[in-house]
Amino acid sequence: MSRLSISFGELLNTSDSNETSVFQFQSQSSFGDIQFVDNGIVRCRFSSVYIEDETDYALIDDAFRLIDFKKNESAEHIDLIISTLKVRVFREDGRLSFFDSNDQPILEDGLATQFQGEVITVFKSLRPNEKFIGLGEKVGSLNRRGTAYVNWNTDKFAYDTEQDQLYSSIPFYIGINDGLYYGIFLNNTHRSTFNFGASTERFSWFSVEGGVMDYFFITADSISGIIEKYTALTGRIPLPPKWSLGFQQCRYSYYPQSEVETLARTFRDKSIPCDVLYLDIHYMDKYKAFTFDADRFPEPKALVKDLNDQGFQLAVILDPGIKVEKGYEPYDSGIKNDVFIKYPDGPRYIGEVWPGESHFPDFTSDRVRNWWSNLLAFYTDLGITGFWNDMNEPAAWGQCLPDILPFDFEGRPTSHRQARNVYGMQMTRATRRGTEQQMDQRPFLLTRAGFSGMQRYGAKWTGDNISSDDHMMLGIRLINSLALSGVPFSGNDVGGFAEEATPELYARWISIGAFQPFFRAHSMVNTRDAEPWSFGEVVEQIARNYIGLRYQLMPYIYSLFYHSSRTGYPITFPMVLNYPDNDWVYDPTFEHQFFLGDGILIAPLKSTETFVKVQFPEGDWYDLYDGTRYSEGGYIIEAPIWRLPVFVRSGAILPSREICQHLRDETDILQIHLYAGKGEFMYYEDDGISKDDTKYNIWEMTLDTSSFTIQYVHSSYKSPKDKITLYLHGIQSSKYKVNERLVDHQYETFRWLEPVKSIDTFSTDKGVDMCEEVVVLTFEMENNIKVVWE
Ligand code: MIG
Questions:
Q1: Global confidence as pTM
Q2: CA–centroid distance, residue 300 to ligand 1 (Å)
Q3: Sign of the alpha-carbon torsion through 529, 532, 538, 542
Q4: Per the residue annotation, which of 54, 209, 214, 464 is the catalytic one?
Q5: Rg of the Cα trace of the chain?
Q6: What is the pLDDT of residues 189-204, one digit of tens each?
Q7: Which residue of the set 130, 137, 390, 408 is catalytic?
Q8: 317 CA: nearest ligand 1 atom
């Protein structure tokens, strides 16, 4: 075999397979094929051996339907055409070019596909203004131009802010090229490299270290359209239980049982809303999965019940390594059922992790996933509803699993090289299967490792970050990038995992986290206490305020989750989603600004800063706390530690509720905040917990300059809410009618947050009051509502 790279080479043979929807071509040394998957998606495959279908972990079943194309041949190339785009295949060397329906080139190979041993590389010509976003859990800037990354799931404790190769790999990115947008999804689980023009202006390129070069080219006329299509291929989040959107408190580790009980009581005593408490590895008997330490947790069932009675859910950590120990049930049954990874010559692989010498289940086998999911009954029988999958890169002391280890890969055996990146995702898939079989309500699952498609199985957190401002800001970029990469339900360890947060850092971080999809505070063993009350009274007030704010906004947030579960639309996202052609969205000064839904814009800043530069997109924007109105452009906004700059888009409709201590607590009043302007919102409600997805309501809400309407789109759930209170921001009139009837209106001083008071006992300080005068209307719930004012 040549050590030089070999180009695809001249096309010798082209053929349409039996179906008119697959175009195959061949050179002396290589094979290629092209399929039109659906409007705006093309699948391209290259290989040095005959192309056969692989085990697909990323793609959902029936992910796509092939469609027919038209063919135009000339001496130089073959054009394959569907209504929305055209792919040109060059006879000379198999290069591809993609054109939109106006015959504008969107993306063109800059070099023929290259083969080097098992490595296959695709080169795309780089355009002067081209920008790149996505690629999942990757450090660096929003715009990835000028950088390169490697996809290889890696456990990296206290990673630094430049560290590449973190816990999950998502070989999907979006290119933005002067008003044209495309996505590339590399459907191959081997180690892969993406270079977005690092040290070159010639190419962006991506390569895989084995298997077929199999990529999907996706176009749409918006960034969200590309994400929608990518998630049509790789799946969307299942609607989580509503309680999992509440605040979650973790610690490495809370024990014994009495400490967990004290923790729960403290949240309630201090009126700090919280829904989930965690048990980290110390709950187990010598770190053995599927056990409880009998001294520390003598009565886990009673603990769960006691927590449930106070409105808490309990989540437990689960690592994949199973201790080698005769008489330990999961080990014995694992041996009996032959579930563990073995060396090619037979002996089981042993890696050292928390329990000591351990075997690792081969989660790439359906049989093994079933074995694991059955074991889960150990927890579900106790009433545990949250499952936290850690160490599933997989991690073992000393890291490197030998690449020779064989994996089942759904009956197409392969090695660690191809299986590693999907290992964590398959563990979470197995865990979810157990919950689905054993629980009569929706579970909450959380994973550290994953691959494209992991969003189908659980939420994602970004591992062992550090208590620093830089990490807090990096966390925002990671979560934003995951959201652009099909993983909308993610978050980071609020307050930072390794090291210790200053009071200011904790306060800022919890304020920002309150707006992110997964909201959990966590910290490392042997570090100072890091609960909302551990940093002094001022910080405690700030934490209570922002956690409470999230609970008030829950009807809005839950609706965003529903919408995302249907379309893949991100829940939080950087400004690039809707303004990709504005250069300032990529500006490092503004790249951390993010939306929570289309209505709320957050401008995060470090704890050491008290002013932030904000860039508002088109339209008008209201300060969340006092209603100050801003128009498009740049502003400098004051942001003391108790006030995270948050703005509401004019025309926004924010369904909300009164503060509650946990989300199983329903309310009979739906509050709706309206911000003068024009807009729409799809409000979703159900009971928040049951698996039955036939009982829900969707209301279409529309705000116009002098009216607000609510219309039932779907109604099969009996809502506990029988009243509506409208809060009108920036809307004033002398007369308001609801369904033709005049209604009274009140003027009210409204606050989302309580004034933060000084801790000085002798102070008469009334605190910093942030409030706004609003008009309030209250009326009965009806199926269709029209509110009118002059
Ligand atoms: O080797 O379970 O990222 O959240 O607290 C460390 C103990 C193992 C790593 C996780 C972290 C968790 C910790 N785990």
A1: 0.98
A2: 21
A3: positive
A4: 464
A5: 27
A6: 999 999 999 989 999 9
A7: 390
A8: 2
